[in-house]
Design goal:
This protein has 280 residues and is α/β, with parallel strands linked by helices. It has one domain: Rossmann fold (3-Layer(aba) Sandwich). Helix content is 30%, strand content 22%. Helix 4 crosses helix 5.
Amino acid sequence: MSVNGDSIIEVDQLVRRFGDRAVLDGIAFNVHRGETLVIMGGSGCGKSTLLRHMIGSMKPTAGSVKLFGEEITGMKEREIERVRLRFGMLFQSGALLASLTVGENVALPLFQHTKKSPDEIEQIVKRKLEMVGLTGFEDLKPDEISGGMKKRVGLARALALDPELLFSDEPTSGLDPIMTAVVDELTKGSHMTAVVVSHDMTSAFRIATRMIMLGHGSIVAEGTPDEIRNSLNPEVQQFIHGRADGPIPLNLSQEEHKDHQLVRPRPFLGGRFRFHHKHS
């Protein structure tokens, strides 16, 4: 895929605080048309928080986020809905509506945002499901398919409007290696720009044109896959190789958790009477 200088996303000095802790502290980068940017980092480092700011579902403490040249941080919901028509979003869980069939889930954005006929929509749904390896699954309900299949339906729905930009949160989790490769090919499709949050290093290095690693509220490393692979930063090397020993701690205290200011502490022993003991 070719990359040009047209910036689809501009993030400038983005700050997000929860209480006295900055989860994102001065994050800045651009995503150019045609790029596949992979965002990675340890659990709790702010990857999903950053993604929520980029799609407009969370407001920053300070800083700017522009999509397609438009500042979205101050937009009202109706304004940002117009911008969202230009991008697709694959949620980590798939986020399917349980009351709808697989086909109806994929068709939903087409019915909501286009004037296509039911016959046209039916054909588009079939094509999108075929792309993700789910031909003939239109009439099943989400609770009748596996977790990995739900993820694939979510991707088909995210691609239903043929978006210019695709956001993905852990797109390959729960997928087998073959379907992971298929999803990777769809993610870096010829007409799209993509931003992917991932822990899957095999997938990440396969699809990325550029990578960002978050840590300590900031960007620890940024570069091409080769630059990240050859980084001298010990945190980067520990993460991409999955090593237990290194500068990234294995334990996360409540004080370090990004949402800890929003959680009311409850003593563990205080809940002991809520459990039922089995008596002999």
